[in-house]
Amino acid sequence: MAEKNAPQSPPSPTADGAKPQSGIRAFLPLILIVVLAPAAAWLTIRFMSPSTPKAAAKPASSHASDHSASAENAKPATEEELPKFHPGLMAPLTRTTIGFHYRKYFGKLAIMDVNGDALGEAQADKIIVNVAGTRGTQVIVARLGVQGDDPPLLRHLNLHRNRLLDTASEVLSSKNLTDVRKPEIKSLLRSELAASFSRILGSGVLQDLQFLEFEVRPR
Question: What is the pTM for the complete model shown?
Answer without folding.
Answer: 0.63
